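Customer escalation, tier 2.

The customer says the design service returned an amino acid string that "doesn't look like it belongs to this structure." They asked us to rerun it and document both sides in this ticket. The original C-alpha cells are below, unchanged.
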C-alpha cells in the first residue's frame, strides 16, 4: 500500500523491454487476487484470458480460477 510493488515491477519491465529487448511479457494470477490484478492494470497490462479451475489452492482445498495479462513492448513505450 505504499507503491513499492509498482516501483519494483516498473524497474523489472524497463529491464526486460529496454535492456533485454523482449517483445511481450505475460503475467498470470489467481482470479480473486484483486491486489495483484490492480497492480498489473496500473502498469498497463491487458486482461487477455480467464482460466477456469486452473490452480489448486492447498489452503482452501479447492480449485480456483486464474487470469492472464500481457503487455507488449510497444504498449510499454506508450505509457
Ligand atoms: C500483490 C501486491 C504485491 C500488491 O501490492 P500493493 O501494495 O497493492 O501495490 P503497490 O506496492 O504498488 O502499492 C499501491 C498502493 O499504494 C498506494 N500508494 C501510497 N503511496 C504511494 C506512492 N508514493 N506511490 C505509489 N502508490 C502509493 C497506492 O494508492 C495504492 O493503493 P490502492 O491499492 O489503495 O489504490 C500485494 O498485495 C501483496 O504482497 N500481496 C500478497 C502476496 C501475493 O498476493 N502475491 C501474488 C500471488 S503469490
Amino acid at each position: 500500500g505504499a507503491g513499492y510493488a509498482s516501483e519494483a515491477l516498473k524497474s523489472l519491465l524497463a529491464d526486460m523491454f529496454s535492456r533485454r529487448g523482449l517483445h511481450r511479457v505475460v503475467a498470470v494470477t489467481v482470479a480473486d487476487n484483486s491486489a495483484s490484478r490492480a497492480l498489473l492494470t496500473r502498469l498497463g497490462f491487458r486482461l487477455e484470458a480467464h482460466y477456469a479451475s486452473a490452480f489448486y489452492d492447498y489452503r482452501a482445498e479447492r480449485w480456483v480460477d486464474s487470469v492472464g495479462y500481457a503487455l507488449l513492448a510497444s504498449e510499454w513505450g506508450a505509457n
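Tier 2 assessment: The sequence is consistent with the input. The CA atoms of residues 51 and 66 lie 5 Å apart. The mean pLDDT is 96. Sent an explanation to the customer and offered a walkthrough call.
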